[in-house]
Amino acid sequence: MSSIGTGYDLSVTTFSPDGRVFQIEYAAKAVDNSGTVVAIRCKDGVVMGVEKLIVSKMMLPGSNRRIHSVHRHAGMAIAGLAADGRQIVARAKGEATSYESTYSEPIPVKELAERVASYVHLCTLYWWLRPFGCGVIVGGCDREGPQLYMIEPSGISYRYFGAAIGKGKQAAKTEIEKLKLSEMSCREGIIEVAKIIYKLHDEAKDKAFELELSWVCDESNRQHQKVPDELLEEAKNAATAALEEMDAD
User: Fold this and answer.
1) 3-state helix, strand and coil shares in percent for the chain, rounded to the nearest 5
2) Sheet holding 162-165, edge to edge
3) What is the C-alpha to C-alpha distance for residues 212 and 7, in angstroms, rounded to an integer?
4) End-to-end CA distance of the chain
5) H or E element in which residue 177 lies
6) pTM above 0.85, yes or no
7) How far is CA 140 from the centre of its chain?
8) Buried b vs exposed e over 113-149: b needs ≥16 C-beta within 10 Å?
9) Residue 2: which pLDDT band, with cuts at 50, 70 and 90?
10) DSSP sequence for 113-133
C-alpha cells in the first residue's frame, strides 16, 4: 500500500512505512513536468537558460518570465509552478536586501542559496502548508567567483558546475557532462546552453517555446542581466543550425 502513497499522502508531515514523504515527491513531479532549465558555471561566470513553453499564441513575448534577478550579482531560474516560483523569488530578494542592510555588502551566493533552501524546507514541516511545486537554480558571482546552486522542493541545496531541472533534465545533464566548462567563456556557454535546450525540445509532442537566457560574468560587469538581443539571436541561429545538421546526418 505504501508504494503508491495510499493513506500516506494526505499530509506533508506523514511518513510512509518505508520512510518516504509523498507530498514532496508529488511536488518534484510538478517540476519534472515543466520546461527544461539549464545552467552552467563557466570560467568567467554563470549562464542560465530556460525553455519557456508558450501556453497561448496570444501571449506577448517576454511575459511570464522564468528567470529573475534577485540582487545585482545574482539571479534565479524557475522550473515548475510559476506562481510558487514568484514567492521564492520574493523571499530571495528580501533576504538579499536584509543581508546588505545589515552587513553593508552583497549577500554571498552560498548564503543566499542556504537561506532560500531553508525557506523551501520550512514548507515541508507543517501540516497546514504544502511544499513548493517548483525547483530553482541560483547563479551569481561574489568574492569566491562564479557560483551555481540548485534547490529542490524538499529544501535540499547542492553546488554544481552544471545543473538541469525540468522534463529534459536527464538528457540535459548528459549533454552538460560533455562540455569542458573550466575552459569555456560565458559567450561560448550561451551558445552551448541554447543548443542543449533546442536539442531537447520535441516539436512533435511539446508546445512552441521561447528561449530565455541570462548571465552574470565579467562581460556583464558581474551583474545578473538578460543576455543582449544580438547574442540571443546568435545563440538561436547556432542552435537551429546544429539541430538541422544533426537531422541531416
Assistant:
1) 40, 25, 35
2) 162-165, 37-41, 45-53, 209-217, 225-226
3) 41
4) 48
5) helix 169-177
6) yes
7) 13
8) bebbbebbbebbeeeeebbbbbbbbbbbbbeeebbbb
9) very low
10) HHHHHHHHHHTTS-TT----S
Cβ contact 137:68 at 8 Å: no
d(CA 215, CA 185): 11
- Cα separation, 13 vs 176, in Å, equals 36
Using alpha carbons only, give the angle 59, 215, 174 rounded to the nearest 5 degrees.
90
DSSP state of 58: T
The grid cell for 227 is 543576455
pLDDT in tens, 52-102: 988 888 888 888 899 999 999 999 999 999 999 999 999 999 999 999 999
Burial 184-207 (b: 16+ CB within 10 A, else e): bebbbbbbbbbbbbbbbbeeeeee
Residues in Cβ contact with 242 at an 8 Å cutoff, skipping those fewer than 6 apart:
195, 198, 199
Helix axes 109-122, 82-103, angle to 10 degrees: 130
- Compute φ and ψ for 225, nearest 5 degrees: -140, 155
Whether residue 70 contacts residue 119, with contact meaning beta carbons closer than 8 Å, is answered with no
Find the farthest-apart pair of alpha carbons in the chain and give their distance in angstroms, rounded: 58
Q: Which three cell numbers stand for residue 138?
A: 541560483
Residues 155/88, Cβ–Cβ less than 8 Å:
no
Give which of 76, 64, 63, 53 is closest to 166, Cα–Cα: 53
